[in-house]
User: What shape does this take?
Amino acid sequence: MRKAVCLLSGGLDSTTVLAIAQNEGFEVYALSFRYGQRHLIELERAQSFALKRGVARHVTIDMDMRPFGGSALTSDIPVPKHHDVQEIGGGIPVTYVPARNTIFLSLALGWAEALGAQDIFVGVNAMDYSGYPDCRPEYIAAFEHMANLATRAGVEGHQKIRVRAPLINMSKADIVRRGTELGVDFGETTSCYDPTPEGAPCRECDSCLLRAKGFAEAGLEDPLYKKFGLHS
Assistant: This one.
């Protein structure tokens, strides 16, 4: 089987991407990060999902980005809350973690080259998202170009690296539908930037609101709400 490295956060998008990679016939190597984020429930979800999906290997890398700060996810900056998705403002929000996707993809690139894998899957999305600069198509294209300049595999030409972002032009509703088709149990995922210790979503952060919008537009009930006895 062809090998692929897949970034796995335990959220709605990354779990769907992993399912897509498996559906395309890849032997998936999942990569998660304990980077000093505000909560670790996402890593519990990632580990559980990887186990249930039978990935070839799941690695969680420890690295602390909290000394850098600059984000509500890696410092004591409050997570912005809203009552409605329409209240999400323009610009880059404080939940953006400086250079996070570049760091994560660089480590995924190193593992892919060591594995002899040509494909790296990442769950970035440029449609229903919060304005992160490292979720845009031009960023993915630029990183892929760099990857083939910066690796022995790319220079020698025997292992062209491809950065796969199958969700990048999909709406959140389309992602929900696709994940559901592929058997993703979204009740075992987490999207919230500020969940309770038990993992219940706050339902007011940008990520919660965008997730709720996706399920509503897909005409489906979010099983995570059902799990915690919440109403959509």
About this structure: Residues 173 and 214 are 4 Å apart (CA to CA). DSSP finds eight helices and five strands in the chain. Strands lie at 3-7, 27-34, 57-62, 119-121, 162-164.
